[in-house]
Write a structure and sequence with these properties.
By secondary structure, this protein is of the alpha+beta class. The protein is built from 13 helices and 17 strands. The protein is globular, with a radius of gyration of 24 Å. Pfam families: ATP-grasp_2, Ligase_CoA.
C-alpha cells in the first residue's frame, strides 16, 4: 500500500526528518496562492502513486505565482504513470549541493531490514546498482537490535560529506528506521535526500509502502485511509480493495489469477524465471470464486496485459468450483488475450472437463508449461480468445 509523497513527508517530519516547506493544492488558484506564500521559485509535484514523475512530466517548476498557476493548470487533470493528477504538492525551491539515496526496506536475502545509502541520488536503486554496485552502502540490520548509530556512521563516513551534513544524514537514517519499524512498513525511501548549499539535509521526495497486514496495528492511519484521506495505490488497486480482492498492479505483461497467496507468489516467480514479467498479483480462492468476473476484469483492464495464466491448486478449496467461476467470467468478458490453465487438486477431474467442454481446450499437466506458454504469448500479440 503506497502512500503519496506529501503523506510520506508528513510522517517523515514527525520523526524529525527535515522536509521542504510546502502545501497540497487541488486548483490552479491554490497553486498560485501557495507560491505567493512560499516566496521565490517553487516546485509543483503531481501527487500520484507512481515513480519517475519527473521523467513523465509530472514535476514542474515556476519562478513566481503566475507561473505556478500556469503549470498547475497544465498538470491538474492530466495523467502521470497511468494515474489522474488531482492534487499537487507545491514546495519551496531548494539550492542543491548534492543528492543522496537512502532507504530502509524488507530484504528477502537476509530475511530482515536492509538499509541502503548511496551518493548517487536522483536515480532508481536498480540504475545505481547496475552502474556502480560498490557505491551503495548496505546495512543488514538485526531486527532484534535495530539500526545502531555506529552502523549508520560507518555507512555515512563512506560518502565524505561535510561534518554538518554527515551528522544530519546519520540522524536521518536512524529516524527512517524508526519510522519503518513503527509503521510496519515494507519500504521507506528518500530519493533524493538533498545536501543543500548550506550543508543542511532535506528529504526532497518520499516513497513509503505499508504492509496491508499491519494496518490493524495502526488504527488512526487505517481510519484516515477508510475516510479517503489517504488515496493509495493505482486505480486498479483501489478497485481491487473496494471489491475485497488482494490485487497488486505490477509492470509486466503476463496477467496472473491463482488461489492462495503462496501459489500466487510461486506463479509470479515462475513467470519471472521463464523470462516474463508478471502484470499483477491477484489471489482468488475460497468464497472469492463468486468475484471471478470482477477479478478477471481487473486483470484484463491493465492495458499492458498480453496473456493470462490461471493457476489453481485445491486442497480444501475445490478447483471445479473456482474454475466454474472463471469460465463464467471468460464467457461474459470474452477476453482478446490468450489464457492458459493449470489445475490440480480437489475437483480437478471435473474442472479439467469443464474447461474442455466450454472452451475446447485442456489445461496443461504441469504448471511450468502453462507459465512458459503465457510468457511466450506475451512476447507477441496474442489474438486467440483462449488458449491452453
Amino acid at each position: 500500500m503506497k502512500l503519496l509523497e506529501y503523506q510520506g513527508k508528513r510522517l517523515l517530519a514527525e520523526v524529525g526528518v527535515p522536509v521542504p516547506r510546502g502545501r497540497v493544492v487541488t486548483t490552479p488558484d491554490g497553486a498560485r496562492d501557495a507560491a505567493a506564500a512560499l516566496v521565490g521559485p517553487v516546485a509543483l509535484k503531481s501527487q500520484v502513486p507512481s515513480g519517475k514523475r519527473g521523467k513523465s512530466g509530472g514535476i514542474r517548476f515556476a519562478d513566481d505565482p503566475r507561473g505556478a498557476w500556469q503549470e498547475a493548470n497544465d498538470l491538474l487533470g492530466g495523467t502521470v504513470g497511468g494515474a489522474t493528477v488531482t492534487s499537487l504538492l507545491v514546495e519551496t525551491g531548494v539550492a542543491i549541493r548534492s543528492e543522496l539515496y537512502a532507504a530502509v526496506l524488507n530484504d528477502p536475502a537476509t530475511k530482515g531490514p536492509l538499509v541502503l545509502l548511496s551518493a548517487s541520488g536522483g536515480m532508481d536503486i536498480e540504475e545505481i546498482g547496475a552502474r556502480d554496485p560498490d557505491s551503495i552502502a548496505r546495512i543488514a540490520v538485526d531486527i532484534r537490535a535495530g539500526l545502531t548509530e555506529p552502523q549508520a556512521h560507518a555507512a555515512v563516513d563512506r560518502l565524505g560529506l561535510p561534518e554538518r551534513a554527515g551528522k544530519q544524514v546519520v540522524a536521518t537514517l536512524l529516524a527512517m528506521y524508526r519510522l519503518y519499524r513503527g509503521l510496519d512498513a515494507e519500504l521507506v525511501e528518500i530519493n533524493p535526500l538533498a545536501v543543500t548549499a548550506g550543508s543542511d539535509v532535506l528529504a526532497l521526495d518520499s516513497k513509503i509502502s505499508l504492509d496491508p497486514g499491519g494496518l490493524g496495528r495502526h488504527h488512526e492511519l487505517l481510519a484516515e485511509i477508510l475516510r479517503g484521506g489517504i488515496e493509495t495505490g493505482t486505480e486498479l488497486e483501489r478497485r481491487g480493495r473496494a471489491l475485497g480482492l488482494a490485487y497488486l498492479e505490477l509492470d509486466g505483461e503476463v496477467g496472473v489469477l491463482a488461489n492462495g497467496a503462496g501459489l500466487t507468489m510461486t506463479t509470479l516467480d515462475a513467470v519471472t524465471h521463464y523470462g516474463g514479467r508478471p502484470a499483477n498479483f491477484l489471489e482468488i480462492g475460497g468464497d472469492a470464486y463468486t468475484k471471478a468476473t470482477p477479478a478477471l476484469r481487473l486483470v484484463l483492464d491493465n492495458p499492458r496485459v498480453r496473456s493470462v495464466v490461471v493457476n489453481f491448486c485445491g486442497a480444501f478449496a475445490r478447483t471445479d468450483v473456482m474454475t466454474e467461476g472463471v469460465l463464467a467470467a471468460i464467457e461474459e468478458l470474452a477476453p482478446s488475450v490468450p489464457i492458459f490453465f493449470s489445475i490440480h487438486g480437489t475437483g480437478e477431474d471435473k474442472a479439467i472437463r469443464l474447461v474442455h467442454e466450454r472452451l475446447g481446450v485442456a489445461p496443461f499437466d504441469v504448471m511450468d508449461d502453462a507459465v512458459r506458454a503465457a510468457v511466450t504469448a506475451a512476447a507477441v500479440d496474442g489474438t486467440r480468445a483462449v488458449r491452453r
